[in-house]
Amino acid sequence: MLKIAKERLNELYGKIAQTQGLFIPVKKAGEVNYAIWGEGKEVSLETLKTVKSPKNMFFPQTENMMKFKTEGKNIDIIDMRDEKRPYVLFGVKACDYKAIEVLDKVFLADPVDTFYKARREATTIVTLACSRPEESCFCSVFGIDATAPAGDVTVWLDNENLYWQSNTEKGEALTAAVKELFTDGGEAEVEAQKAATKEILQKLPFAALDLSRFKPENLNELFDDPAWEELSEACLGCGTCTFVCPTCQCFDIRDFKTNDGILRYRCWDSCMYSDFTLMAHGNSRTTQMQRYRQRFMHKLVYYPSQNDGLYSCVGCGRCVNKCPQHLNIVKVIKTLGGKNDD
Amino acid sequence: MIEETLIPKVGVVTDIRKDTPDVKTFRVVGTDGKKLFEHMPGQCAMVSVPGVGECMFSITSSPTNQEFMEFSIKKCGCVTEVLHAMEVGQQITVRGPYGRNFPVEEDFKGKDLLFIAGGIGLAPLRSVINYVRHYRENYGKVVIVYGARSADDLVDFEEIKTEWKNEPNFEVYLTIDRPQEGWDDHVGFVPSYVKELGLDSNMTAVLCGPPIMIKFTLQGLLELGFEKSRVYTTLELRMKCGVGKCGRCNVGDKFVCKDGPVFRMDQLDELPDEY
User: Fold this and answer.
1) What's the distance, Cα to Cα, between the start and end of chain A in Å?
2) Would you call B274 and A290 a contact, using CB atoms and an 8 Å cutoff?
3) Which of B32, B57, B250, B251 to mutate to test the interface with A (most CBs of A within 10 A)?
4) Which of the residues in chain A have pLDDT under 50?
5) Buried (b) or exposed (e) across A255-287, using 16+ Cβ within 10 A?
6) Which residue of A has its CA nearest to B241?
7) Whole-angstrom Cα distance, residue B145 to residue B194?
8) Would you say A64 and A80 are in contact if contact means Cβ atoms under 8 Å apart?
9) What is the pLDDT, as a whole number, of residue B139?
């Protein structure tokens, strides 16, 4: 294990940024989000939950896919994919890292989404262990260890130092490039922090959520549960939950006429919207209850059924904090998940 | 550049046939004059008019056609409206094939086959029927029951009259909803016609048409003693990607684009009723 004093972190960022793009949580206008690092930027590694998850590093909110040039009856397709510059995504929390694994199973499954894959391959991910989980956190419910996230490199931060541990080949390469700034040591400090954090995690209000009923064999029983009506009653269909969610991956593909041809782009979409499933002759989900049910059934039943039991929720709690109607997955789990207390 | 399924190929429309007042069949080849890609009966393709949109259509021509692909398309939305206004020679984009095909090389082999279609529902079945005609020796008797609102709404009527009706061991039954001058065939809805015909329940059946027709026809077939595990249909939901990633065409844990569009009735029974 390696360590570097906290006050020298800017040197570390500068060193990384010499050769690659560095995306890191940066405070801007009161909000913290992943942004490209530069001198003078206010880095906020301590912020537990960036407003947007880092999913847009691989699956941007909008991205240009191709261009069509038309002349008379003819069409020319211009591939807009380009070489991705290598970059480092720094400070990813355990929940958000797990969410990237969830997205990988969608976008890297055959046929591979080459737009996603190019970004994924160009990125070295440095994860940051949590030391101060919040009340809205419930990653442990999904078997995630917030104190020891995976990733190419894992770092821990305390009041004095940042501790660095490389996990993969990509991580080794990054370590080699910055090693001169580090000294050896930190194992004891990291172990102490892990133990202290684990105690907090156990005491979190949502730590004992029961998922036992969310199994593929209960799919129809859960789908038909009358509780969905009441659970979804206040839902505005605003889609905020889907936009802040690190695992929501639904997208739309649209065309946009420009002065220089027709641009086909992909953008985030939301199963919460009424036109998401609208066809020329009909809609398979006409009510907000159906759309609400779709979102949670997908995360807790459909996705796991397709992916060896892996849930498509990582317990980051963003939807708990952001839903204007205080509806969220925790309420769904408490109502339908099994033997939950209240 | 690496192959990307979301990036389509350019196709040229070489022929447009007006089948009914609101259905046209488009013949498409690549810019090199050859077929764009190979497919199996029941599979679909994403057809797009750049600037307007991209939609999933079943490939109505048989894979045994080595020269071109055909799409029978009903005018009912913004993309299909533009397609219907197109002229021969126009280029469009096509990508695919997507989805699982009818089990023509597996479960259908050696079986007597019953095809029941309503309206534009004939489009996906035409691919299978012509495939079966091409490999005639691999299949038993073929019964086709096809209905539409009126005689003018029967898609591919010429092919039905001149080719299918004359095919050995083929029985073709046509019906229209209301009596019409010059129509000597049956009049009535498909579900009741199917019951009247008293079809042999040992046949493997394929149903395609409007949801209401499928529902009542299936009921009729079950009354006749057909087993759900030998009745096939196709589903249609909104799609953007065609490969199970954009997240909108799922019924329960199955994506229609990837796990369908062909489903057996007993498989559909296991899925939530949301299609």
Assistant:
1) 43
2) yes
3) B250
4) 342
5) beeeeebbbbbbebbbbbbeebbbbeeeebbee
6) A253
7) 7
8) yes
9) 96
Cross-chain residue pair B245–A70, CB shorter than 8 Å = no
Rounded Cα distance, A159 and A162, in Å: 9
Radius of gyration over every alpha carbon of chain A, rounded to an integer in angstroms: 22
In-domain check, residue B220: yes
* Residue B89 distance to chain A (closest CA, Å): 7
Distance CA A327, CA A309 (A): 25
Measured between alpha carbons, how far is B12 from B35 in angstroms, rounded to an integer? 10
CB–CB of A155/A165 below 8 Å? yes
* CB proximity list for A230: less than 8 A, separation 6 or greater: none
How many structural domains does chain B have?
A: 2
Range of the domain at B52: 9-98
Q: Residue A220, exposed/middle/buried by CB under 10 A (0-12, 13-18, 19+)?
A: middle
Is B207 a domain residue? yes
Chain B residue nearest residue A78, CA to CA: B7
Dump pLDDT digits (tens) for A47-104.
Answer: 999 999 999 999 999 999 999 999 999 999 999 998 889 999 999 999 999 999 999 9
Residues B62 and B117 in one domain: no
Shared domain for B131 and B230, answered yes or no, is yes
For chain A, what are the domain ranges? 2-203, 216-336
Q: How far apart are CA A97 and CA A106, in angstroms?
A: 15
> Residues B14, B94: one domain?
yes
Both tokens of B32, joined, read 């090199």
Nearest CB to A113; choose among B1, B76, B245? B245
pLDDT < 50 positions in chain B: none
Residues B201, B167 share a domain: yes
CB contact under 8 A, B54 and A252: no
Pairing of strands A282-283, A278-279: antiparallel
Q: Do B76 and A278 touch (CB under 8 A)?
A: no
Q: What is the pTM of this model?
A: 0.94
Residue A254, classified by CB atoms within 10 Å of its CB into exposed (0-12), middle (13-18) or buried (19+), is middle
Examine the domain organization and report whether B136 and B65 are in the same domain: no
CATH number for B35: 2.40.30.10
Among B residues 60-119, those touching chain A with beta carbons less than 8 Å apart: 76-78, 80, 87, 89-93
B212 within domain boundaries: yes
Residue B4: closest C-alpha in chain A: A114
- State residue A307's pLDDT score: 95
Residue B76 to residue A280, Cβ atoms within 8 A? yes
CATH number at residue B180: 3.40.50.80
Q: Is A335 exposed, middle or buried (0-12, 13-18, 19+ CB in 10 A)?
A: middle
In a domain, B253, yes or no: no
